Amino acid sequence: MRWAMVKAAIAGTVMVALAFLIPLGLMVQQTARDRAFTAAERQAAALGPALAITTDQEAVSRAMASTDAGARERLAVHLPGGVTVGTARTDNDQLPGSANQGWTRTVRAGTVRVDGGYALLQPVAVDGGGIAMVEVFVPNSDLSRGVGTAWLVLSGVALALVAVSVAVADRMGTRIIRSARRLATAARSLGSGNLSVRVPVEGREAAGAPEELREAAYAFNAMADRVVHLLAAERELAADLSHRLRTPLTVLRLNAAALGEGDAADATRHAVSQLEREVDQIIRSARRQPEDAPAVALGCDAVEVVRDRVGFWSALAEDEGRPWQLAGDEAPAPVPVQRGDLAAAVDALLGNVFRHTAVGTAFAVDLLICEDAVTVLVGDGGPGFTDPAAAIRRGAGHGGEGSTGLGLDIVRKLAQGTGGDVTLGRSAVLGGAEISLRINTRTEVELPRQQRRRTGRLIRKD
């Protein structure tokens, strides 16, 4: 924008300068020409009194020598009868009328083009009633005297005007750009999560900003305040809704305590306790102010998390008679995501298997570890996806009672946060649905998705 304003200022100033300075320069050139011929006419008129008294050649020569043009040999007098006194630049053929028979009073002054300039011819009445022709030579140097200097001065004025306009445009552009960059920086900061950022609209920092950018700054600040209020209301709503779950959770905990002993009872009590902890964590997170949030270590071992979550779901798989298998968990696989987020994503994938397939349907979890990504594959032997695009769409919720359509969206957000992705397809081994969660371990560069095929394994639990 700054360079565009400078170019516009240069173009406008040059156009205005040319519109005024070129006619002015031509006028100066014409003035110099008129000035030279006027001076020549004065030199010719100076001989009028002497020629009116006598036409003697010696007397005329003395009169010519007393003038500036005569002293510089630029003056000549053509007397009646064809006699010429002085240095003439014209021939008789160039003179008006007849130089041999004498000129009449109807002959008027004029100019004749000669070598090196012009000759001014001025008729003058002489002694005896005749007409003499006074010739004054005007060289080209007199016609252009001072014109070159005038053009230089005018060019300097034009350059000065352009420089001043560029300086003014650059100054204005700097103020506009500074204000625009300040607004853009604040927008990026707000987008990165800094809810306290505001654009100054008063004081020294906002001085010189255009009124339009001031209005944009006011609108930005109002938007930021609105975002803060909406987020606060959302946190309060999340806290209130989570608090409503405490009553049914209390009932579940009491019922779980009455189940007695056994693996199923222990698993139920563990699940209720974990659910209570999750609800408490949601309430604390919702009530916590953004600036009070503690620093969270970003990163976990994907193998450890997947092994833990598969072990949790294995108890329910045993009860429902589902064969299952976990493969690829031999070596650690660090990923740049929080442990809780990855656990929630794995729970969403495994929960879909139990929710959308019949009891006794087999499933498998595979981990594929490479240099730049970790892929979690969850496949089952169910009917598969009839519409994969709709299944991953947020809030679609076509899974029947209890389905919100948010599970796969949570998985997708986790993958995209690292530059990875989620793909839905059909399992080549089990024949049902297969979901691939790819997590990039190098998040600074978004790598292209690599197509991987899994070798067939017999899904069987001994």
From TrEMBL:
It is found in: Cell membrane. InterPro entries: 2C_sensor_his_kinase, HAMP_dom, HATPase_C_sf, HATPase_dom, His_kinase_dom, HisK_dim/P_dom, HisK_dim/P_sf, Sig_transdc_His_kin-like_C. The chain crosses the membrane at residues 6-28, 150-169. It catalyses: ATP + protein L-histidine = ADP + protein N-phospho-L-histidine. Its cofactor is Mn(2+); Mg(2+). It holds the Pfam family HATPase_c. Residues 174-232 form the HAMP domain. SMART domains: HAMP, HisKA. It comes from the Bacteria. This is Signal transduction histidine-protein kinase/phosphatase MprB. Keywords: ATP-binding, Cell membrane, Hydrolase, Kinase, Magnesium, Manganese, Membrane, Nucleotide-binding, Phosphoprotein, Protein phosphatase, Stress response, Transferase, Transmembrane, Transmembrane helix, Two-component regulatory system, Virulence. Residues 240-443 form the Histidine kinase domain. Its EC number is 2.7.13.3. One of its GO terms (molecular function) is kinase activity. It is a multi-pass membrane protein.
